[in-house]
Specification:
The chain has eight helices and no strands. It is mainly α and 159 residues long.
């Protein structure tokens, strides 16, 4: 990996660690969309059940969505304060790109299964979701910035 491409201070946070870029955050939020609906439904007391039924008519789809989004939630929690966590979290972070790509492929498989259940009828929401997922998978594969993010050394806080 050519680290000379990333000598700008904009690529690092104030602790000297690689800073996640906007597309990393967007891809994690995209994968964690079931978690977002779940949290919003939990916050809205009376309408929570109706909100979950609107987005996830089947409880199984919600649970599978929560499972697919779990790696993204973990990586979002680790991304901001990785320097504060114990060193064994480094292994999770170094494998983060593989976790994200695996979660995206799981999401793509679920989307294709959903399209098969609809007998391949066109819906804008399904098409846009599938297109965004494909773009983000291609981005994760090709982005040198994402590769640098997960392979850069992690500097710890001194106590």
């Amino acid at each position: 990996m050519n680290t000379h491409l990333y000598q700008s201070p904009d690529y690092f946070d104030k602790h000297g660690n690689a800073k996640p870029n906007l597309l990393f955050w967007l891809s994690c939020v995209f994968l964690a969309r079931a978690w977002l609906v779940f949290v919003i439904a939990g916050v809205s007391r009376e309408q929570g059940q109706d909100l979950l039924a609107l987005f996830y008519p089947s409880h199984d789809a919600l649970y599978i969505g929560l499972g697919v989004g779990f790696p993204a939630v973990v990586l979002m929690l680790l991304a901001g304060n990785l320097h504060r966590y114990p060193a064994f979290f480094d292994r999770i972070w170094f494998w983060g790109k593989a976790f994200l790509i695996t979660a995206f492929f799981s999401d793509l498989i679920l989307q294709i299964k959903h399209l098969m259940m609809l007998h391949w009828r066109f819906h804008w929401s399904s098409a846009v979701t599938l297109l965004i997922a494909l773009w983000l998978v291609i981005y994760l594969f090709k982005s040198r910035r994402t590769q640098f993010l997960f392979k850069a050394p992690i500097l710890r806080e001194e106590k």
